[in-house]
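QA checklist item 7 of 12: single-chain prediction sanity check.
[x] sequence parsed
[x] length recorded as 297
[x] structure emitted
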Amino acid sequence: MMHITLKPPRVAYSERNPARVDAKPSERSMFVVIGRTSCSYAIKNNPCRFCAFWDKSPKIEGIAFEDALAKVGVAKGGRIELVGSGSIFDEEQIPLTQLCAMLKLVGRTDAHSVLVESRPEYITAEKIKLARRFLGSKTLEIAIGLETANDSLRFMLNKGFSIWDFHNAVSTIVDAGAIPVAYLLAGIPTMSDYETQCDILESAFTLSLLQKKLGISIRLAIQTFFTSLSLSSLAYLVPEFVAQLAIDVVQKTGMEVFVAPSSEGLTTHPLNSARAQFDLFNATQDILYLIRIKGSK
Protein backbone atom coordinates (compact mmCIF):
# COMPACT_ATOMS: atom_id res chain seq x y z
CA MET A 1 0.00 0.00 0.00
CA MET A 2 1.43 3.38 -1.05
CA HIS A 3 2.13 5.79 1.80
CA ILE A 4 0.92 9.34 1.13
CA THR A 5 2.82 12.11 2.88
CA LEU A 6 0.61 15.01 3.85
CA LYS A 7 2.30 18.34 3.21
CA PRO A 8 1.19 21.67 4.65
CA PRO A 9 0.72 24.70 2.38
CA ARG A 10 3.76 26.81 1.52
CA VAL A 11 4.39 30.23 3.04
CA ALA A 12 4.56 33.48 1.06
CA TYR A 13 5.62 35.74 3.93
CA SER A 14 6.39 35.48 7.63
CA GLU A 15 7.41 37.76 10.46
CA ARG A 16 7.72 37.86 14.24
CA ASN A 17 6.93 40.81 16.48
CA PRO A 18 5.73 41.71 19.99
CA ALA A 19 2.19 40.83 21.08
CA ARG A 20 0.22 40.17 24.24
CA VAL A 21 -0.51 36.48 24.74
CA ASP A 22 -2.37 34.99 27.70
CA ALA A 23 -2.41 38.45 29.32
CA LYS A 24 1.40 38.64 29.27
CA PRO A 25 3.97 40.35 27.01
CA SER A 26 5.16 37.90 24.39
CA GLU A 27 5.51 37.60 20.60
CA ARG A 28 3.46 36.51 17.63
CA SER A 29 4.82 34.59 14.65
CA MET A 30 2.71 35.30 11.56
CA PHE A 31 2.66 33.10 8.45
CA VAL A 32 0.91 34.08 5.21
CA VAL A 33 0.11 30.69 3.69
CA ILE A 34 -0.43 30.05 -0.02
CA GLY A 35 -3.69 28.32 -0.82
CA ARG A 36 -4.42 25.94 -3.68
CA THR A 37 -6.62 28.73 -5.02
CA SER A 38 -7.20 32.28 -3.95
CA CYS A 39 -10.22 33.37 -1.87
CA SER A 40 -13.26 31.29 -2.88
CA TYR A 41 -15.64 34.09 -1.96
CA ALA A 42 -13.79 36.49 -4.26
CA ILE A 43 -13.75 34.00 -7.11
CA LYS A 44 -17.52 33.49 -6.89
CA ASN A 45 -18.67 36.97 -5.84
CA ASN A 46 -15.84 39.36 -6.77
CA PRO A 47 -13.31 40.38 -4.11
CA CYS A 48 -14.07 42.57 -1.15
CA ARG A 49 -13.73 46.17 -2.25
CA PHE A 50 -10.23 47.58 -1.74
CA CYS A 51 -8.88 44.12 -0.88
CA ALA A 52 -5.08 44.24 -0.80
CA PHE A 53 -4.60 40.50 -1.18
CA TRP A 54 -6.83 39.48 -4.08
CA ASP A 55 -5.21 37.46 -6.84
CA LYS A 56 -7.18 35.04 -9.01
CA SER A 57 -4.31 32.54 -9.07
CA PRO A 58 -1.56 32.64 -6.44
CA LYS A 59 1.77 32.92 -8.28
CA ILE A 60 4.23 33.14 -5.38
CA GLU A 61 6.11 29.88 -4.89
CA GLY A 62 7.01 30.67 -1.29
CA ILE A 63 8.92 28.35 1.03
CA ALA A 64 8.01 25.15 2.83
CA PHE A 65 6.00 25.65 6.01
CA GLU A 66 8.62 23.79 8.06
CA ASP A 67 11.34 26.11 6.74
CA ALA A 68 9.28 29.20 7.55
CA LEU A 69 8.75 27.93 11.10
CA ALA A 70 12.50 27.37 11.49
CA LYS A 71 13.36 30.75 9.94
CA VAL A 72 11.03 32.93 12.03
CA GLY A 73 10.85 30.77 15.14
CA VAL A 74 8.10 30.67 17.73
CA ALA A 75 8.39 32.24 21.17
CA LYS A 76 7.74 29.90 24.07
CA GLY A 77 4.28 30.85 25.24
CA GLY A 78 3.76 33.02 22.15
CA ARG A 79 1.15 33.02 19.42
CA ILE A 80 1.22 31.58 15.91
CA GLU A 81 -1.00 33.34 13.36
CA LEU A 82 -2.03 31.53 10.17
CA VAL A 83 -3.39 33.99 7.63
CA GLY A 84 -3.91 34.11 3.87
CA SER A 85 -5.82 35.82 1.08
CA GLY A 86 -9.12 34.34 2.18
CA SER A 87 -10.02 31.71 4.78
CA ILE A 88 -7.83 29.06 6.39
CA PHE A 89 -10.97 26.97 7.01
CA ASP A 90 -12.06 27.14 3.34
CA GLU A 91 -11.41 23.64 1.96
CA GLU A 92 -11.30 24.88 -1.63
CA GLN A 93 -8.45 27.18 -0.69
CA ILE A 94 -6.69 25.03 1.93
CA PRO A 95 -7.58 21.34 1.41
CA LEU A 96 -8.31 19.43 4.60
CA THR A 97 -5.18 17.29 4.23
CA GLN A 98 -3.01 20.43 4.06
CA LEU A 99 -4.80 22.02 7.00
CA CYS A 100 -4.24 18.92 9.13
CA ALA A 101 -0.57 18.72 8.16
CA MET A 102 -0.05 22.39 9.03
CA LEU A 103 -1.86 22.15 12.36
CA LYS A 104 0.11 19.01 13.23
CA LEU A 105 3.38 20.92 12.84
CA VAL A 106 2.05 23.91 14.75
CA GLY A 107 0.87 21.62 17.53
CA ARG A 108 4.46 20.53 18.15
CA THR A 109 5.72 24.06 18.84
CA ASP A 110 6.01 25.84 22.20
CA ALA A 111 3.31 28.37 21.29
CA HIS A 112 0.57 29.05 23.81
CA SER A 113 -2.06 29.91 21.22
CA VAL A 114 -2.79 29.63 17.51
CA LEU A 115 -4.87 32.07 15.47
CA VAL A 116 -6.49 31.23 12.13
CA GLU A 117 -8.38 33.63 9.85
CA SER A 118 -11.72 32.67 8.35
CA ARG A 119 -14.91 34.08 6.89
CA PRO A 120 -18.01 33.24 8.97
CA GLU A 121 -19.47 30.71 6.53
CA TYR A 122 -16.49 28.36 6.89
CA ILE A 123 -16.51 28.35 10.68
CA THR A 124 -18.14 25.17 11.96
CA ALA A 125 -18.04 23.22 15.21
CA GLU A 126 -16.53 20.29 13.29
CA LYS A 127 -13.65 22.39 11.90
CA ILE A 128 -12.89 23.83 15.31
CA LYS A 129 -12.98 20.38 16.91
CA LEU A 130 -10.57 19.10 14.25
CA ALA A 131 -8.18 22.01 14.78
CA ARG A 132 -8.22 21.62 18.56
CA ARG A 133 -7.47 17.90 18.23
CA PHE A 134 -4.18 18.70 16.46
CA LEU A 135 -3.35 21.66 18.70
CA GLY A 136 -3.78 19.78 21.96
CA SER A 137 -3.77 22.13 24.96
CA LYS A 138 -3.03 25.22 22.87
CA THR A 139 -5.63 27.98 22.80
CA LEU A 140 -7.34 28.37 19.42
CA GLU A 141 -8.29 31.86 18.27
CA ILE A 142 -10.40 32.46 15.17
CA ALA A 143 -10.22 35.87 13.53
CA ILE A 144 -12.96 37.29 11.31
CA GLY A 145 -12.53 40.34 9.07
CA LEU A 146 -15.62 42.14 10.33
CA GLU A 147 -14.05 45.52 9.33
CA THR A 148 -17.06 47.45 10.70
CA ALA A 149 -20.22 46.77 12.70
CA ASN A 150 -22.12 48.92 10.20
CA ASP A 151 -23.94 46.63 7.75
CA SER A 152 -24.29 49.39 5.15
CA LEU A 153 -20.54 50.02 5.12
CA ARG A 154 -19.84 46.29 4.98
CA PHE A 155 -22.23 45.98 2.03
CA MET A 156 -20.30 48.77 0.28
CA LEU A 157 -17.10 46.81 0.95
CA ASN A 158 -18.72 43.68 -0.61
CA LYS A 159 -17.89 41.62 2.46
CA GLY A 160 -20.86 39.31 1.84
CA PHE A 161 -22.01 38.77 5.42
CA SER A 162 -24.09 40.62 7.99
CA ILE A 163 -23.50 41.49 11.62
CA TRP A 164 -25.87 38.63 12.48
CA ASP A 165 -23.73 36.19 10.48
CA PHE A 166 -20.81 37.45 12.56
CA HIS A 167 -22.78 36.98 15.80
CA ASN A 168 -23.66 33.39 14.81
CA ALA A 169 -20.03 32.62 13.97
CA VAL A 170 -18.86 34.04 17.30
CA SER A 171 -21.40 31.85 19.12
CA THR A 172 -20.11 28.80 17.23
CA ILE A 173 -16.52 29.70 18.10
CA VAL A 174 -17.28 30.14 21.79
CA ASP A 175 -19.47 27.04 22.07
CA ALA A 176 -16.67 24.97 20.52
CA GLY A 177 -14.11 26.21 23.06
CA ALA A 178 -12.20 28.73 20.92
CA ILE A 179 -11.72 32.50 21.24
CA PRO A 180 -13.08 35.05 18.74
CA VAL A 181 -11.01 37.90 17.30
CA ALA A 182 -12.50 40.73 15.25
CA TYR A 183 -10.58 42.78 12.68
CA LEU A 184 -11.73 46.39 12.38
CA LEU A 185 -10.63 48.50 9.42
CA ALA A 186 -9.47 52.03 10.10
CA GLY A 187 -9.31 54.28 7.09
CA ILE A 188 -11.89 52.95 4.66
CA PRO A 189 -11.38 54.92 1.44
CA THR A 190 -14.11 57.55 0.92
CA MET A 191 -14.40 58.07 4.71
CA SER A 192 -13.14 61.19 6.48
CA ASP A 193 -11.08 61.10 9.65
CA TYR A 194 -14.16 61.99 11.74
CA GLU A 195 -16.25 59.26 10.07
CA THR A 196 -13.47 56.75 10.66
CA GLN A 197 -13.20 57.70 14.33
CA CYS A 198 -16.98 57.38 14.79
CA ASP A 199 -17.14 54.03 12.98
CA ILE A 200 -14.29 52.46 14.94
CA LEU A 201 -15.81 53.52 18.24
CA GLU A 202 -19.32 52.44 17.27
CA SER A 203 -17.98 49.06 16.14
CA ALA A 204 -15.99 48.63 19.35
CA PHE A 205 -19.04 49.45 21.47
CA THR A 206 -21.13 46.93 19.50
CA LEU A 207 -18.53 44.21 20.08
CA SER A 208 -18.19 45.19 23.74
CA LEU A 209 -21.93 44.69 24.22
CA LEU A 210 -21.76 41.34 22.41
CA GLN A 211 -18.99 40.03 24.65
CA LYS A 212 -20.91 41.10 27.76
CA LYS A 213 -24.05 39.37 26.48
CA LEU A 214 -22.16 36.14 25.77
CA GLY A 215 -19.98 36.39 28.88
CA ILE A 216 -16.77 36.10 26.84
CA SER A 217 -13.83 38.19 25.69
CA ILE A 218 -13.42 39.34 22.09
CA ARG A 219 -10.00 40.62 21.13
CA LEU A 220 -9.88 43.48 18.64
CA ALA A 221 -7.29 44.02 15.93
CA ILE A 222 -7.29 47.44 14.27
CA GLN A 223 -6.12 47.11 10.68
CA THR A 224 -5.18 50.14 8.61
CA PHE A 225 -5.74 50.45 4.89
CA PHE A 226 -2.36 49.82 3.30
CA THR A 227 -2.56 48.94 -0.40
CA SER A 228 -0.18 50.70 -2.73
CA LEU A 229 -3.02 52.88 -4.05
CA SER A 230 -2.33 56.57 -3.62
CA LEU A 231 -5.45 57.92 -1.97
CA SER A 232 -5.28 61.51 -0.82
CA SER A 233 -8.50 60.96 1.14
CA LEU A 234 -6.48 58.84 3.59
CA ALA A 235 -3.80 61.42 4.26
CA TYR A 236 -5.04 61.52 7.88
CA LEU A 237 -4.06 57.87 8.38
CA VAL A 238 -0.88 58.63 10.32
CA PRO A 239 0.49 57.06 13.53
CA GLU A 240 -0.86 59.87 15.74
CA PHE A 241 -4.40 59.36 14.46
CA VAL A 242 -4.35 55.57 14.81
CA ALA A 243 -2.81 55.88 18.29
CA GLN A 244 -5.75 58.06 19.36
CA LEU A 245 -8.21 55.53 17.93
CA ALA A 246 -6.64 52.78 20.02
CA ILE A 247 -6.59 54.98 23.13
CA ASP A 248 -10.29 55.76 22.69
CA VAL A 249 -11.24 52.10 22.28
CA VAL A 250 -9.22 50.93 25.29
CA GLN A 251 -10.42 53.72 27.58
CA LYS A 252 -14.09 53.63 26.56
CA THR A 253 -14.64 49.85 26.21
CA GLY A 254 -11.83 48.20 28.19
CA MET A 255 -11.30 45.73 25.34
CA GLU A 256 -7.90 44.31 24.41
CA VAL A 257 -6.63 45.93 21.21
CA PHE A 258 -3.90 44.90 18.80
CA VAL A 259 -2.80 47.56 16.31
CA ALA A 260 -1.71 45.62 13.24
CA PRO A 261 1.73 46.97 12.27
CA SER A 262 2.30 44.89 9.14
CA SER A 263 1.44 45.14 5.45
CA GLU A 264 2.46 41.47 5.14
CA GLY A 265 5.22 42.28 2.70
CA LEU A 266 3.01 44.11 0.18
CA THR A 267 4.07 47.72 0.62
CA THR A 268 5.33 50.24 3.16
CA HIS A 269 2.92 50.41 6.06
CA PRO A 270 1.63 53.87 7.09
CA LEU A 271 2.48 53.17 10.75
CA ASN A 272 6.11 52.20 10.15
CA SER A 273 7.59 55.37 11.63
CA ALA A 274 6.06 54.56 15.05
CA ARG A 275 6.23 50.79 14.86
CA ALA A 276 8.44 50.40 17.95
CA GLN A 277 5.89 52.18 20.13
CA PHE A 278 2.95 50.29 18.61
CA ASP A 279 4.82 47.03 19.23
CA LEU A 280 5.31 47.93 22.89
CA PHE A 281 1.63 48.81 23.25
CA ASN A 282 0.60 45.55 21.58
CA ALA A 283 2.72 43.58 24.04
CA THR A 284 1.59 45.42 27.17
CA GLN A 285 -1.69 47.28 26.49
CA ASP A 286 -0.07 50.28 28.19
CA ILE A 287 -1.52 53.37 26.48
CA LEU A 288 1.49 55.44 27.59
CA TYR A 289 3.25 54.12 24.47
CA LEU A 290 0.40 55.46 22.34
CA ILE A 291 0.51 58.80 24.15
CA ARG A 292 4.22 59.00 23.30
CA ILE A 293 3.35 58.58 19.62
CA LYS A 294 0.97 61.51 19.87
CA GLY A 295 3.53 63.56 21.76
CA SER A 296 6.24 62.93 19.18
CA LYS A 297 4.39 64.85 16.46
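[x] summary fact logged: The mean pLDDT is 89.
[ ] second reviewer sign-off
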